[in-house]
Design goal:
Chain B: Belongs to the binding-protein-dependent transport system permease family. The complex is a heterodimer of chains A (about 350) and B (about 280). With about 350 residues, chain A is α/β, with parallel strands linked by helices. Chain A has helices at about 5, 25-35, 40-45, 75-80, 105-115, 130-135, 135-140, 145-160, 175-185, 205-220, 230-240, 255-260, 265-270, 285, 310-320, 340-345, and strands at about 10-20, 50-60, 65, 90-95, 95-100, 115-120, 190-195, 225-230, 240-245, 250-255, 290, 300-305, 325-330, 330-335. Among the domains of chain A are: about 5-10 and about 60-90 and about 95-115 and about 190-270, Rossmann fold (3-Layer(aba) Sandwich); about 285-345, Alpha-Beta Complex (CBS domain Like). In chain A, strand 9 (about 240-245) and strand 10 form a beta hairpin. Chain B folds into two domains: about 25-45 and about 85-275, MetI-like (MetI-like fold); about 50-85. Classes of the chains: A alpha/beta (about 350), B mainly alpha (about 280).
Chain lengths: ~350, ~280
């Protein structure tokens, strides 16, 4: 994969609004004309703003998480990406094409070939076997039975359900059903998969297992995904980047480390307060820069700048040294002391200054 | 006021006379068609002797209900009808019910599907269906007898009218009640409108549609018996003539035969509905 491909934007969602309600056209005019906000729109027009001025970019190969509590507009936002819901304002492009401008046939084609979707409710057709469910996307596209069944078998193999092809959805556990849902999305081989809270209804152990498998599978197959969740732990486990939503607004977008170390506001700060920093915070965010270090750095044990706190604790306890030197591109850039580590674990953004 | 009512009644009578005078060929055609269908089905049912038909019915019940006991009970019930000396009447009633149900379903299933897909049609149909269902069912015999005369054709038309509403309603309900997540799945997968109907809406509607078929069949049974008044033939007419001559024993025999036939058809179609 070349560099330009790695940063290619697959879904570009630009200042998108969704306003629900009978008087939404008036409300939209007021938003564009007078710059009204959410609260004023609700008061003046009785319209609920589901998504307010949201912009996200999903790049090729990345897993983009949208995290928010119920009612935050995340489910509306993901449905704007494949036009299950029409945006009131703004523009969504998929692979460079404006989906609002597509006619019915082009939109069907785009959904069938380029954007798969997995639902929280799984939505497996109860009258069909697991194999027939997994082949549904190709069946809709008019692919012949042998060919679509072969593709469905390959997808079911990938999610570990090769032995369950002839069963009916009702015979499967919740976790297995969601694997079929994922296999169904993979069978059509789309570049982008929209995941609408797929694991929220599962018990914690199965959920973690599926999270890891999903991430692995997505990376192995080189897919891109938009993943909706109300669970920050899940977002951090799965997402390359995370957008945090509240009341229809995207408050902050960034990597897990950026969000945990530099929360945009008190709401995000409260959210990340309980998150374990052990695997999130890297040496470069807690180290004392080499220039400010008083002692002899060269004799300390070395670590790379993206070693996490967990690895640093291991290194310190094993070597018996009180500090570790941080190395980047073969030269020393800073030092992490036990004190820095403790502050890092607590999640103080200014651990470096301490 | 009285004058107005008299004028209205006369207008209705005149309209009926006009129809019988000027559109007789249409009603003769309808009558021939209905009686042809009825005669054809009856001819099929009477083709084989009673024991062959009884065993066949038993086999169908066994296969559909997946219970040998149900099969044996069906055979015994049918043989009982023969034993009471009512075999021909029973078959003729069955032929009426089947003919009326086939016509009623041929109209009401497509109508129900359309009503399920188009809320405005559904709203327009609702008062019509309400009217049909609240009127006493023998009302429909009167205009039919005026236009089609005495005989099975009149019985069939009245029965078709009475049998339609449940199938229309339950079909529309089944089509309308597709769980929203599956509609969403269809859109997200990129289905065409035809695929949405055939692969998603229809499979979910099948149990409701089958319940409608079962209900229509039961309505048809009730009406076919009432239609004995207009010379429908079959068990209905047996009961009607038994009542006129106060032959209570005979009317009870015929009633038992009706109950037997109804139960067999009801159980078989209910199992069909559940099997899906």
């Amino acid at each position: 994969m070349t560099h330009s491909e790695a940063t290619e934007v697959l879904i570009d969602c630009q200042s998108v609004w969704k306003v629900f309600g009978d008087r939404s056209p008036e409300a939209i005019r007021a938003i564009t004309g007078r710059g009204l906000g959410k609260q004023e729109v609700l008061k003046e027009f009785g319209c609920v703003v589901g998504v307010s001025d949201a912009s996200i970019q999903v790049r090729r190969g990345e897993i983009f998480c949208i995290m928010g509590l119920s009612g935050s507009g995340k489910s509306t936002l993901i449905r704007l990406l494949n036009r299950l819901i029409e945006p009131s304002l703004g523009k969504v492009t998929v692979k460079g094409r404006d989906i609002a401008a597509m006619d019915a046939a082009t939109l069907r084609e785009t959904r069938a070939r380029h954007i798969g979707m997995v639902f929280q409710s799984v939505a497996l057709l109860p009258q069909r076997t697991v194999l027939e469910n997994a082949a549904f996307g190709l069946e809709v596209q008019g692919v012949g039975k042998d060919e679509r069944n072969r593709a469905a078998e390959v997808a079911l193999d990938k999610v570990g359900l090769a032995d369950w092809k002839a069963r009916y959805p009702s015979e499967l556990s919740g976790g297995m059903q969601q694997r079929v849902g994922l296999a169904r999305a993979l069978t059509s081989d789309p570049e982008i998969i929209l995941m609408d809270e797929p694991f929220s209804a599962l018990d914690p152990l199965i959920r973690r297992q599926l999270q890891d498998e999903f991430r692995q599978l997505t990376k192995d197959l080189g897919k891109s995904a938009v993943f909706i969740t109300h669970d920050l732990d899940e977002a951090i486990r799965i997402g390359d980047r995370i957008a945090i939503m509240k009341d229809g607004v995207i408050i902050q977008t960034g990597t897990a480390e950026e969000i945990v170390m530099n929360p945009a506001d008190q709401y995000v700060a409260d959210f990340v307060a309980g998150i374990s920093r052990l695997h999130l915070v890297k040496a470069h965010s807690v180290m004392v820069p080499l220039a400010e270090w008083q002692g002899d750095a060269a004799s300390l044990p070395r670590c790379s700048s993206d070693a996490d706190i967990d690895a640093l604790i291991g290194q310190i306890t094993e070597t018996g040294s009180d500090a570790v030197a941080v190395e980047e591109d073969g030269r020393l850039v800073g030092v992490v002391t036990i004190r820095n580590l403790l502050l890092g674990v607590r999640g103080d953004a200014d651990a470096r200054a301490a | 006021m009285e004058n107005f009512v008299t004028a209205f009644d006369m207008a209705v009578d005149d309209a009926l006379f006009w129809l019988t005078d000027h559109a007789a060929f249409i009603f003769d055609g309808i009558r021939a068609l209905l009686e042809g269908l009825y005669d054809g089905i009856l001819w099929l049912l009477m083709l084989a002797p009673f024991h062959v038909v009884s065993v066949l019915a038993g086999l169908i019940a066994w296969r559909v209900m997946k219970s040998p006991g149900a099969g044996i009970a069906t055979v015994l019930a049918m043989v009982f009808c023969w034993w009471m000396g009512l075999w021909a009447e029973t078959m003729s009633t069955l032929a009426l019910v089947v003919a009326a149900s086939v016509i009623a379903l041929a109209i009401s299933l497509p109508l129900g599907v359309l009503a399920g897909l188009m809320p405005r049609l559904d709203r327009a149909l609702a008062p019509v269906l309400d009217l049909i269902q609240t009127m006493p069912p023998y009302i429909y015999l009167l205009p039919a007898i005026a236009l089609l005369g005495y005989g099975p054709a009149t019985a069939l038309i009245a029965t078709v009218i009475v049998a339609m509403p449940p199938a229309v309603r339950l079909t529309a309900l089944g089509i309308r009640r597709t769980p929203t997540e599956f509609i969403e799945l269809g859109h997200a997968t990129g289905v065409t409108p035809a695929q949405m109907f055939l692969k998603i809406r229809l499979p979910f509607a099948v149990p409701s549609i089958m319940a409608g078929v079962n209900q229509s069949l039961m309505m048809a049974f009730g009406m076919v018996v009432i239609a004995g008044i207009v010379g429908s033939g079959g068990l209905g007419e047996t009961i009607f003539s038994a009542i006129r001559t106060l032959d209570i024993a005979k009317s009870i025999d015929a009633a038992i035969a009706i109950v037997v036939l109804t139960m067999v058809l009801d159980r078989v179609t209910q199992s069909l509905a559940r099997a899906k």
